[in-house]
Structures are given as structure tokens and as C-alpha cells.
Write a structure and sequence with these properties.
- The protein is of the alpha+beta class.
- It has one domain (about 1-90): Signal recognition particle alu RNA binding heterodimer, srp9/1, CATH 3.30.720.
- It has three helices and four strands.
- The protein has a four-stranded mixed beta sheet, covered by helices on one side.
- Strand 3 (about 55-60) and strand 4 (about 65-70) form a beta hairpin.
- Helix 1 runs parallel beside helix 2.
- The radius of gyration is 20 Å and the shape is extended.
- One of its GO terms (molecular function) is 7S RNA binding.
- It is found in: Cytoplasm.
């Protein structure tokens, strides 16, 4: 997995979306990141770790290529605006969900 800066992450994410436009999918995950690179120690060890500030870890993958970035508290608003514009621009190829007919629903409930 490649850890990128925020701007380069957005450009690479754009490339991932363009590559997967006709077939394939892009998986994006977001989670809280406290800066740890090692697992949490067991109860016997009293090693306290205090994160300096809250951060978010974003990961994106198309199955072949994985990219990630860490967004700090100061850059959240700027990154969120650019990220939302990117998602709006590339979510036009979604398939509509098939609606089931009402007759199947009434048969199932009876």
C-alpha cells in the first residue's frame, strides 16, 4: 500500500475511477487513525500512547492497486470539499437497482 499526500491521493483516485469506469469497482474505506504503526500491547504492559490530534486514514483499492492517505484535523474541510467533488464527478456510471414487482411481495406475505 502506498501512503500518499492528500493532493496526490485525489489524483490517483481519479485515475482509479477512470480505469474502472467500464468494468470493475473501487473500494474506499475511512477510519480514525491515531498514528500507531504497531499493535496495541497486552494488559501486562503499561505503555500509554496519546495521539497528538485526530486524523483520518483513507484507503482506496481497485483490487490491483492500493493507495492511502492520512488527513489531519487542519486539512479536513479542504480535503472533504475536493473529495466530494471527485465523488460527484465519477458516480455517474452507477446501475439502477431493479425494483421487484408488487405481486411477488404480496405472495411472500400471504
Amino acid at each position: 500500500m502506498v501512503l500518499l499526500e492528500n493532493d496526490s491521493f485525489l489524483t490517483e483516485l481519479t485515475r482509479l475511477f477512470q480505469r474502472c469506469r467500464t468494468s470493475g469497482s473501487v473500494v474506499i474505506t475511512l477510519k480514525k487513525y491515531d498514528g500507531r504503526t504497531k499493535p496495541v500491547p497486552r494488559k501486562g504492559h503499561s505503555e500509554s500512547f496519546e495521539p497528538a490530534d485526530n486524523k483520518c486514514l483513507l484507503r482506496a483499492s481497485d483490487g490491483k492497486k492500493k493507495i492511502s492517505t492520512v488527513v489531519s484535523t487542519k486539512e479536513v474541510i479542504k480535503f472533504q470539499m475536493a473529495y466530494s467533488n471527485l465523488l460527484r464527478a465519477h458516480m455517474d456510471g452507477l446501475k439502477k437497482k431493479d425494483k421487484k414487482s408488487k405481486s411477488k411481495k404480496t405472495k411472500a406475505t400471504q
